[in-house]
Amino acid sequence: MVGFFWLLQITGDQNSPDEGQIFRTVRLSFLAERSLFTHRAAPAPEVVFRCKTDRNYIKIKAMTEEKTEQAVEQAAAPETKKEEAPAVSLERTLELSVPSAQVRELAQKHLRGYAKDARMPGFRKGHVPMKQVEAMYGMRAFDEALNELVGQAWSKAAQASGLQIAGAPKVEAVEGANGDEETMRFTAKFEVFPEITYPDFKALNLKRYTSTVDDAAVEETINVMRKQRVTYTEAAADRAAQKDDRVTVNFTGTKEGIEFPGGKAEGFQFVIGSGRMLAEFDAAVAGMKAGESKTFDLTFPKEYGPADLNGATVQFLVEVTKVEEPHFPTIDDEFAQSLGVKDGVAAMRADVKKNLEREVSYRLEQRTAAEVFSALDKVLTFPVPAAVVEEERRAMAQQYAQAMRSRGLEAPKDIPDSMFQEPAVKKARVGLFISEVVQREKLTATDEQITARAQSIAASYENPAEVVQYLTTDRQSRVNVAMQVQEENVTNWLLGQAATEEVPVEFDKVMKGEF
């Protein structure tokens, strides 16, 4: 069987085996990253004291020492800008109370623990007088006891409320925060998940994309594999770079005379015409010889990535340090053998077709799902908890930085919150809705579906049984496969509810993502 390695390479730099290896890794881990309805536990928005009895840390304001206010400022979470003021507020408040006597009693227990390890000149370890121990650790013990008991009070109140709470609460002292009153009172402010109702699905016009793999597609793919096994030799000094050549360059990009993040690299290699670089960059380097430099203008696509570069015209200074010309292998039995096919060229073509059909099916499924969820976003209007939006925004920022680094570019150190705010709101809203559909329509992935999907993923590997075993028994991998299945279940369910049109797509356009 042909290894999955070469097949995935055609989604990236067709002339770079290393790039293909990256794509293979991505495909093994893509399940967790692409799910639209997976929401991780929201991070604690602000932390002052860590509650040992509750996963969500609690922030308590108006405590006795100045260090508390400093901790609040240092631990304050990034401000989340809302898309618009929601018609229905998700904010709720619960009253909490803790007997002061319990706080003092628990604080004494913590002090006794500190006393066992306390050290002070003139005393043996564990024999420091309690009065001195209290002077050293009294406030810390009080803070720990208070935070623990407030955490317990919050857990009980939250459970008793029956509310579906999103994120960690912000707890503020009302009275008696120093323990002077008989009862210490607090308010816990938090957000809840919204009530979700179904929109009019019949008003949605959805598309299901289809395609076929013919002999021409198989030959084209084999030619791509041939290019993937290319070797290079350094070109003559007077030979200009051309299509399919591998070039090594240094470049610096500037906008209005100022360098922009991710626009500079040294010793950067790429193949002209491979699609790894923007077409204007390819065209500028083609025709240059080793040792030459030039400056040229480049206009980024309108939806390139960073908002300040979308559609912007920038200037690049590029220096070509090396030009290498390609040498491609002949398509014969030896070539088939190099791909792991022992039965010759005909068997290789059959394996290629099976793998292509699997890959085309996957891409069509992804595009169909993306359009379904995009259409869904346009009819959903319910408010989204800030904690959920912030988690999505952070994940998007991390993925963007990783993508930059994977291309050999420098990732921006400080990514503005606003850069991914709007898409984070949309993704979070659709994700919450999809979660509701999964529960209400009972679309959770079954064991049979998980196994079937794992077998489909593993079919292109040399040892499918081992891959299936890993995907179905490793805890996180199984969760990832289940999420992929659930996404497919939801997509198919939504297609069945709306007016759906089947749209055939040419093979080339499927593989290039031009549909």
UniProtKB/TrEMBL annotation:
HAMAP family: Trigger_factor_Tig. The keyword RNA-binding does not apply. It holds the Pfam family Trigger_C. The lineage of its organism: Bacteria, Pseudomonadati, Pseudomonadota, Betaproteobacteria, Burkholderiales. Belongs to the FKBP-type PPIase family. Tig subfamily. Its EC number is 5.2.1.8. This is Trigger factor. NCBIfam families: tig. It comes from Sutterella wadsworthensis HGA0223. The keyword Cell division applies. Its main location: cytoplasm. It is an enzyme of class 5 (isomerase).
